[in-house]
Amino acid sequence: MRLDGRLETAIELFDASDAARVVSGLTRSLGQPRASVGSAAGSPTQVRITVAWGLCWYQWSVDTVDGLVHEIGKGEEVEQLDRSARQWNVAVGKRGALSFGAARPPARRRAWLRRR
């Protein structure tokens, strides 16, 4: 399976899991998050998904072979995340669903961009 296919599979598994419902609930409370999807270090089948708001972040591991999605971490400061987890490369849509494409910057940054 090529890398892009693996990431797409991970997103599909995530979107069908309870994790997407967690993201949806937090989004209603905390606003629009940023998200990233990338390979987990050292594993050909694991993909790491990170979703972050201004006040907290969550990470999940998705095994693209057995279909398991489980939380692997959470925290309060986005700066706690390693640089690769902060490569915001996916958008978060309704009901917590992830999609490749135009990952939007947080609202505060969008407002700053409009003023330029």
Tell me about this structure:
This protein is α+β, with helices and mostly antiparallel strands and 116 residues long. The protein has one domain (3-115). It contains three helices and six strands; from the N terminus they run ααββββββα. It has a four-stranded antiparallel β-sheet, with helices on one face. Strands 5-6 form a two-stranded antiparallel sheet. The N and C termini lie far apart (43 Å). The relative contact order is 0.21. Residues 108-116 have low confidence and may be disordered.
**Rg, alpha carbons:** 14 Å
The averaged pLDDT comes out at 87
Shape label = globular
**Count of individual helical segments:** 3
Helix and strand sequence: HHEEEEEEH
Terminal-residue CA separation: 43 Å
Q: Give the biggest sheet.
A: 4 strands, antiparallel
Q: How much strand?
A: 25-35%
Secondary-structure content class: alpha+beta
**How many domains make up the 3D coordinates?**
1
Seen as an oligomer or otherwise, the chain set is: single chain
- Helix fraction? 25-40%
**How many beta strands in the DSSP annotation?**
6
Instruction: Identify low-pLDDT runs.
Output: 108-116
Strand arrangement within the widest β-sheet reads 1-2-3-4
